[in-house]
Structure to design on (163 residues):
């Protein structure tokens, strides 16, 4: 017969697995974006910006969104099956951090879509549009913030909520 403690450990391990997979997906996307930025150099051409944005758009939908969804599902598992919603200060902190990650990720996806639309327009007119740099910089900043929040979420949940 399985004890309540063993069931809790199972759900906690499930949470760990899902959150680590979500983090890996998000981290992979960040690394690919950094490599693309380095490969393009200081003053990329309109064509290279266009191809970079097509790549970034695909990576956003293949890695970032599924990664964030895994983080969200993991937090729900942690809350629902292991601790309960709002039952512990550290669980509440994890829940708040996950909400911040989701809201920030929505912002990143919206900025990425806008930057891609501008890059496509730049390619059509073969001229740089100054607004692109502003939006891409904001996207990069929010991406860095997201990674820090994801790391904080992992640290809190792995070190403060151990069984």
């Amino acid at each position: 017969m399985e004890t309540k403690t063993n069931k809790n450990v199972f759900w906690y391990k499930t949470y760990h697995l899902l959150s680590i997979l979500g983090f890996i997906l998000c981290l992979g996307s960040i690394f690919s974006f950094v490599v693309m930025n380095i490969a393009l150099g200081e003053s990329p051409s309109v064509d290279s910006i266009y191809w970079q944005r097509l790549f970034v758009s695909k990576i956003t939908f293949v890695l970032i969104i599924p990664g964030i969804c895994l983080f969200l599902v993991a937090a729900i598992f942690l809350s629902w099956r292991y601790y309960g919603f709002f039952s512990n200060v550290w669980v509440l902190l994890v829940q708040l951090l996950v909400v911040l990650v989701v809201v920030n990720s929505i912002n990143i996806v919206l900025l990425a879509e806008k930057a891609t639309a501008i890059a496509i327009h730049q390619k059509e007119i073969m001229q740089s549009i100054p607004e692109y740099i502003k939006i891409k910089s904001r996207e990069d900043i929010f991406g860095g913030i997201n990674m820090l929040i994801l790391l904080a979420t992992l640290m809190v949940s792995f070190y403060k909520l151990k069984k």
Observations:
- The mean pLDDT is 84.
- The longest helix spans residues 46-83.
- DSSP finds four helices and no strands in the chain.
- Residues 57 and 105 are 13 Å apart (CA to CA).
